[in-house]
Structure to design on (142 residues):
């Protein structure tokens, strides 16, 4: 299993960060791994909702089917995914209000036989992608 996380203080209130985070039409503007949602994001956004995402991880295309597992408006979005080659993924976005700013933490994990072979490279690549995504997301809301 490979686990990675990244955190940033964003100079915008949690409501505004949440609105951007859950605007699935704009993911291409900030998510470093996102390429498309073939059928759109989860509609409605609710626990148990599923959706497909095309991504690029370590330069390789991947299609992931996500399920919303945790949802607390303006606080938590947790999703679990099934990717190619039996890879299981999880992403958890946690927003913590801090005055007029928001601490946004992203925790991600990857598990499966294919992950074991390249865990080190995957961790480096995923960490860089999370940090780039946080920087771009902050640029959209600050």
């Amino acid at each position: 299993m490979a686990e990675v996380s990244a955190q940033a203080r964003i100079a915008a209130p949690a409501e505004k960060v949440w609105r951007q985070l859950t605007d699935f039409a704009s993911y291409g503007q900030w998510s470093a791994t996102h390429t498309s949602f073939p059928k759109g994001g989860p509609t409605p956004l609710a626990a148990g909702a599923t959706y497909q995402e095309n991504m690029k991880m370590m330069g390789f295309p991947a299609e992931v089917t996500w399920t919303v597992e945790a949802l607390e408006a303006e606080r938590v979005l947790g999703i679990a995914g099934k990717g190619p080659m039996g890879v299981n993924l999880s992403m958890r976005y946690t927003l913590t209000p801090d005055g007029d700013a928001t601490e946004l933490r992203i925790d991600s994990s990857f598990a499966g036989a294919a992950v074991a072979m390249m865990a080190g490279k995957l961790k480096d690549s995923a960490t860089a992608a999370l940090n780039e995504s946080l920087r771009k997301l902050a640029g959209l809301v600050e």
